[in-house]
Design brief:
The chain has 779 residues and is an alpha+beta fold. The protein is built from 29 helices and 13 strands. The strands form 3 sheets. Strands 2, 3, 4, 5, 6 and 7 form a 6-stranded antiparallel sheet that branches. Strands 9, 10, 11, 12 and 13 form a 5-stranded antiparallel sheet that branches. Strands 1-8 form a two-stranded parallel ribbon.
Length: 779
C-alpha cells in the first residue's frame, strides 16, 4: 500500500514537472527567435558603487558607438586612395551588405557653420579671449586691416564685415583641430605614415552578432581589402568598431559552446554506455541534461532580460555536473529488479538532496559578488542543477521499467574501492603528510595575485592592432579615461567644465596632454557667452572704425542673436553630432558631460587625475584602474566568503555525520590548497576567477565525500562518484581550453582541483567494520 501511495504521488509530481518543461520549451522557441544575447564585456562588470552615474556615462558612450564601424583606406598617392576607396565602397554596398554608409561631406560642414553663425560673436577660443582682453586698440586696428587686405580665400568662411578680426575662422580652425581628418574632393582625408587615407563611416545593419557563428561584417571587410589591394597594390585597409568585436566574440562563443557543451555531453553519454551498456540510461541522463540547461536558460532570461554569451559558455560546463544525480540512480539500480526502483531512489534521496544543496549554495555564492555576469552564471547553474535533479526525481522511476544488469566494466571499477588504501596516522602516513604540507606551503608562499580587466575578454590581436593604429591616425579620444562633469542644470555643468578645460589647456601647453574634447568648446556657458560677446563687440567696433578711417566710408557691424546658445538648442540640430555622445541629460536627476582625452599615456594619468581633483562636480574616471581595483577587492571578499562557506558546510555535514563530518570536507580543502600550491610553483597568478572556482570545488568536491559516507563500503556509490568525477573533469577540463582568460583560469583550477579531490576522497572513507556505528546511524 505504501508503494502504491508513493507511485501515485510520484506520478502527480511527474505530471506537474511535465507541464513546467512544456512551458520552458515554448519559451525556448521565442528566446532563440529573439536572440536576446549580450556580448558586451562591460555588462559583466559591477556598477560603480560610489558613483552609479559613472556607469550611466559608460553606457551612454557605448550606446553611441554600438553600431558604428570606421574604415580607413590608404594608398601612397591621393588618386590611388580615391580609387581604392571607391572599390571598397562598391564591395560594401552589395545587395546583401550588412553596413550602411553614413554621409559625411562638405554639406554637413556648411550646415554646421550656418547653424552657429547667429552666435558668432560669442564663440571664442582661449587664445582669442586672452588676446582680446590684453590687446591695445592700435594692435586690434592693425590686425583688422591686415585681415581686410588679405587675399580672398585665406581660410575665411564669411565676408570681412561679419568677421573683421578673423575670429570666426580661428574658432572653426580650433574645432577642426579636434580631429586630423579634413574634407578633400568630397571625401574625408588625412595624410599620415606616408599614406593618403580616406575615412569611411558605416553603421551595422540588423543584429550586431549572430549565434550561428557567422562573421558577416568581418567577411565583408576582408573582401573589401582584397578589392583594395587589387585596385592599388600596396594599399591598406583599417577597420574598427564595436560590431567587429561583438561578431568575433559571438563566433568564438559559438565554437566554445559547441566544443564544451557537445564535447562533454558526448563524453558523458559514452561513459554511461560503457558503464550500463543500455540505451535507457543514455536517453534518461541525456534528457536530464537537456532539460536542466533549457530551464536554466529560461530562468536566466526571465530574471535578467538578456543572457550574456559567457554565461552560455560557462553554462555549457553544467553538463559535467548535472548528470551526477542520474549516475547515482543508475549505479544503485544495477542488479536490482525493476520493482525496487522506488525504494532505490528513496534510499538515495537524503544524499542527493544534501549534494544538491551544497552544490547550489556554492553556485549561488558566485551571485554575492556584484558582477552581473557572475550573477547570471550563478542563477543559470543553480537552476540547471535543480532542474536536472527534479527530472531524475520525477521521471526516472516512471520511465526506468526494465532490468539493468551489472556490467563487467561497472563491476570491475566498483571493486577498485576495496583496493584503495586508507590514510592512517602511522609513521609513514605522518611522514607523507609532512612532505605534502611542506611542498604545499612552499607553493602557497610563491603564489602571487594578479587582477586585470583583460582577464574578462579575449580580443583578437589583429583587431586590436587595427584599432590602435586607427586611433593613433585619427587622434580619437580614449574611452577608458575621461572626466565626468555634473551639475544641477546645463549651465552649471558648462561652467564647471570650463574651469576644468582651463587646467587641461595648461597641461597641453606643457606637452603633458595631446588634446581634449569638451561640450563647452561648442556651447559655452551663458556667463562666458555674455562676457565674450562684450569683448568681441568692443574689439570689432575698434576694427570697423579703423577700416572706416582707412576707406573713407562707414562699415556697419551685423547684428547677432540676442538669445543665448543653449545645449538643448544645439543638440536639436543635426550638426550636434560632435557633442551628442558627450552630453548626458537627466542622469540620476542631474545633468552631466564627458570631457574626452586624446593621446593619453600611463605616465600622464597622475597629472590628469590631479587636474580635476579639487573642482566641484568634476570626477576623474579611469575605468581600467577602477575595474582592476574592483577585481582585487572582490577577490579578497570572495576568499573570505569561501572560508565562511567551509564553516557552513562543516556544520551541515556535522548535523548529518557527527564526528565523521571531517572525512567529507578534508579532501576538498586539501585538493584546493594543493591546486593553489601548484599555481605558485608553475607561476600562475591568483585571480578572482581562481577563487570562484575554489568556491565551486567546495560545493562539488564535498559531494564525493557525502556519498561515500552515506554508503560506506558500497562499490555502487564509488562507481557513481567516479563517473561524476570523470564527467566533471571532462566538462571543466574543456572549459580550460576557452580563449577567454577568465574562463581558462576558472577551468584550469577546476581541472586540477577535481583530480586531486577525487583521488584524495577515498583515502578518508569510513571503514565498514570499524565504523559500523556511524554507518548504522547514517542508515
Amino acid at each position: 500500500m505504501a508503494i502504491e501511495t508513493t507511485v501515485k504521488r510520484w506520478r502527480w509530481l511527474a505530471g506537474l514537472w511535465a507541464v513546467i518543461v512544456l512551458l520552458v520549451a515554448v519559451h525556448q522557441v521565442h528566446f532563440w527567435r529573439a536572440a536576446r544575447l549580450d556580448t558586451d564585456v562591460m555588462a559583466l562588470l559591477p556598477e560603480n558603487e560610489q558613483a552609479p552615474q559613472v556607469g550611466e556615462a559608460m553606457r551612454h558612450l557605448s550606446d553611441q558607438a554600438a553600431r558604428q564601424v570606421v574604415v580607413l583606406v590608404g594608398a601612397q598617392d591621393w588618386q590611388a586612395a580615391q580609387q581604392t576607396a571607391q572599390a571598397v565602397q562598391q564591395v560594401l554596398a552589395q545587395e546583401d551588405a550588412v553596413l550602411t554608409p553614413q554621409v559625411s561631406d562638405a554639406a554637413a560642414r556648411e550646415a554646421a557653420v550656418a547653424f552657429y553663425a547667429p552666435w558668432r560673436d560669442r564663440l571664442l577660443t582661449a587664445g582669442q579671449r586672452a588676446w582680446l582682453t590684453q590687446a591695445e586698440p592700435d594692435g586690434i586696428a592693425a590686425s583688422a586691416l591686415l585681415q581686410l587686405y588679405q587675399p580672398t580665400g585665406g581660410g575665411r568662411i564669411t565676408d570681412w564685415p561679419h568677421d573683421p578680426l578673423g575670429l570666426w575662422a580661428g574658432w572653426w580652425a580650433a574645432r577642426a583641430a579636434e580631429t586630423r581628418v579634413r574634407p578633400r574632393d568630397g571625401l574625408l582625408w588625412l595624410e599620415a605614415d606616408g599614406f593618403q587615407w580616406v575615412l569611411l563611416r558605416y553603421e551595422r545593419r540588423g543584429a550586431v552578432f549572430s549565434m550561428t557563428g557567422e562573421t558577416a561584417v568581418n567577411d565583408a571587410l576582408a573582401q573589401a581589402l582584397t578589392a583594395a589591394v587589387r585596385t592599388a597594390p600596396g594599399s591598406r585597409l583599417l577597420a574598427t568598431g564595436v560590431p567587429l568585436y561583438a561578431e568575433v566574440a559571438a563566433a568564438q562563443s559559438n565554437r566554445e559552446m559547441t566544443l564544451i557543451g557537445y564535447g562533454s555531453l558526448a563524453a558523458v553519454l559514452l561513459l554511461v554506455w560503457l558503464t550500463f551498456r543500455s540505451l535507457r540510461p543514455i536517453v534518461l541522463v541525456g534528457l536530464s541534461l537537456v532539460i536542466g540547461c533549457a530551464v536554466a536558460l529560461s530562468a536566466t532570461a526571465w530574471l535578467f532580460g538578456k543572457v550574456h554569451l559567457l554565461t552560455l559558455v560557462f553554462g555549457a560546463s553544467l553538463v559535467g555536473v548535472a548528470e551526477d544525480y542520474g549516475f547515482h540512480y543508475f549505479a544503485a539500480r544495477q542488479g536490482q529488479p525493476a520493482s525496487a526502483r522506488w525504494r532505490t531512489l528513496r534510499s538515495l534521496l537524503p544524499g542527493l538532496l544534501l549534494a544538491l544543496a551544497t552544490s547550489a549554495v556554492a553556485y549561488l555564492a558566485l551571485g554575492l559578488a556584484p558582477f552581473p555576469g557572475l550573477r547570471q552564471m550563478a542563477v543559470f547553474s543553480a537552476v540547471g542543477l535543480s532542474a536536472a535533479f527534479l527530472t531524475v526525481l520525477c521521471w526516472f522511476p516512471l520511465f526506468d521499467r526494465g532490468a539493468l544488469p551489472v556490467t563487467r566494466f561497472a563491476s570491475r571499477f566498483a571493486d577498485t574501492l576495496q583496493h584503495w588504501p586508507y590514510w592512517r596516522a602511522s609513521r609513514g602516513g605522518l611522514a607523507l603528510a609532512l612532505v605534502l604540507a611542506a611542498l604545499t606551503i612552499t607553493g602557497l608562499l610563491r603564489l602571487e595575485s594578479h587582477d586585470d580587466l583583460r582577464q574578462l575578454q579575449s580580443l583578437p590581436a589583429g583587431l586590436v592592432a587595427q584599432q590602435q593604429e586607427a586611433n593613433r591616425l585619427l587622434g580619437l579620444p580614449s574611452p577608458a579615461q575621461f572626466y565626468l562633469v555634473e551639475g544641477r542644470d546645463a549651465e552649471e555643468v558648462l561652467r564647471r567644465e570650463e574651469a576644468l578645460t582651463e587646467r587641461l589647456a595648461n597641461l597641453m601647453q606643457q606637452g603633458r596632454l595631446e588634446g581634449y574634447r569638451a561640450v563647452s568648446d561648442w556651447v559655452p556657458s551663458a556667463a562666458r557667452q555674455q562676457a565674450d560677446a562684450v569683448l568681441t563687440q568692443r574689439a570689432e567696433r575698434v576694427a570697423l572704425d579703423a577700416a572706416a578711417a582707412e576707406l573713407g566710408e562707414t562699415v556697419q557691424r551685423p547684428a547677432y542673436s540676442a538669445e543665448v546658445l543653449t545645449v538643448e538648442r544645439a543638440l536639436a540640430h543635426p550638426s550636434a553630432s560632435a557633442i551628442k555622445a558627450q552630453w548626458i541629460e537627466g542622469a540620476q536627476g542631474r545633468f552631466g558631460s564627458l570631457v574626452l582625452l586624446s593621446g593619453v599615456t600611463a605616465a600622464q594619468l597622475p597629472a590628469l587625475e590631479q587636474a580635476g581633483r579639487d573642482l566641484p562636480g568634476v570626477r576623474w574616471v579611469d575605468k581600467t584602474a577602477e575595474f582592476s581595483g574592483l577585481l582585487a577587492r572582490y577577490r579578497v571578499g570572495m576568499a573570505a566568503l569561501l572560508l565562511a562557506g567551509y564553516a557552513g558546510v562543516l556544520l551541515a555535514l556535522y548535523a548529518r555525520f557527527r564526528r565523521a563530518a571531517w572525512r567529507a570536507l578534508l579532501p576538498t580543502a586539501l585538493g584546493s590548497l594543493i591546486t593553489l600550491a601548484v599555481f605558485g610553483w608553475i607561476g600562475l597568478p591568483l585571480q578572482l576567477f581562481t577563487v570562484l572556482a575554489l568556491v565551486l570545488l567546495l560545493g562539488m568536491g564535498v559531494d564525493y565525500g557525502i556519498f561515500l559516507l552515506e554508503h560506506p563500503g558500497e562499490g555502487t556509490a564509488w562507481l557513481a562518484v567516479a563517473l561524476a568525477g570523470v564527467s566533471t573533469l571532462l566538462s571543466f577540463g574543456l572549459l580550460a581550453l576557452s580563449s577567454t582568460p577568465a574562463l581558462h583560469a576558472f577551468g584550469l583550477t577546476m581541472l586540477l582541483g577535481e583530480v586531486l579531490i577525487w583521488l584524495l576522497t577515498p583515502f578518508f572513507r569510513l571503514r565498514p567494520g570499524r565504523d559500523a556505528a556511524i554507518s548504522t546511524q547514517n542508515a
